């Protein structure tokens, strides 16, 4: 039996939009963490992502991906910036991003505009919780739409971030050896 491998996700191969913010300064740290933008997922997560892409397409929507596989060193950079386990996995415990099984994303409408989710990606606030009360009806519907697509594809969510989805049972998997990331280098 072969071990699962990291698979690159691109607009050409998967029909998604990529806005890999950790390769830019448009993230919570205000600086680029990756030198190059590459979107990678472990094979079982990539298979479920393909299902989510198909479900979204049937609703005239496109997935925009902000982050997927994250080397442990990048996780450490995020933890050093915001050491709050509500939003950032403690590096010793490990993030499911560092297992290649988590993905951060949103939805685009047919015109290519992001659906309003009430907060931006990486907004580490209580308003980013999936079911935060008091958000306008259209925001609640958009979050539920994303949740429905991702759950139907076999992902699960975490309470604190509307954009974060992962394979169920991911914690049981080992962290990926950072040498497996190939072209994904840190700044």
UniProtKB/TrEMBL annotation:
SUPFAM superfamilies: Hedgehog/DD-peptidase (SSF55166)
Protease among keywords: yes
Pfam families: Peptidase_M15 (PF01427)
EC number from the UniProt entry: 3.4.13.22
InterPro entries per UniProt: A_A_dipeptidase (IPR000755), Zn_M74/Hedgehog-like (IPR009045)
Gene Ontology biological process: cell wall organization; proteolysis
Binding residues annotated for Zn(2+), in chain numbering: 97, 104, 164
Kinase as UniProt keyword: no
GO molecular function: D-Ala-D-Ala dipeptidase activity; metallopeptidase activity; zinc ion binding
Cofactor note text: Binds 1 zinc ion per subunit.
Record keywords: Cell wall biogenesis/degradation, Dipeptidase, Hydrolase, Metal-binding, Metalloprotease, Protease, Zinc
Site annotation Transition state stabilizer: residues: 70
Catalytic site positions: 161 (proton donor/acceptor)
Functional note: Catalyzes hydrolysis of the D-alanyl-D-alanine dipeptide.
Xref: NCBIfam families: PRK10178.1
The protein's name: D-alanyl-D-alanine dipeptidase
Organism: Paraburkholderia megapolitana
Lineage: Bacteria, Pseudomonadati, Pseudomonadota, Betaproteobacteria, Burkholderiales
């Amino acid at each position: 039996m072969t071990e699962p491998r990291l698979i690159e996700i691109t607009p050409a191969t998967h029909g998604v939009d990529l806005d890999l913010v950790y390769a830019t300064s448009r993230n919570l740290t205000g600086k680029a963490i990756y030198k190059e933008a590459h979107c990678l997922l472990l094979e079982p997560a990539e298979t479920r992502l393909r299902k989510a892409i198909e479900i979204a397409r049937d609703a005239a929507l496109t997935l925009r991906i902000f982050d997927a596989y994250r080397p442990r060193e990048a996780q450490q950079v995020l933890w050093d910036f915001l050491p709050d386990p509500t939003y950032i996995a403690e590096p010793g415990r490990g993030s499911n991003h560092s297992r290649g099984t988590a993905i951060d994303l949103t939805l685009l409408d047919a015109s290519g505009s992001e659906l309003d989710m009430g907060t931006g990606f990486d907004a580490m606030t209580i308003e980013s919780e999936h079911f935060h009360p008091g958000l306008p009806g259209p925001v609640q519907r958009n979050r539920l739409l994303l949740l429905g697509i991702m759950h139907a594809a076999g992902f699960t969510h975490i309470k604190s971030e509307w954009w974060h989805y992962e394979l169920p049972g991911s914690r049981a998997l080992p962290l990926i050896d950072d040498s497996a990331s190939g072209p994904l280098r840190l700044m």
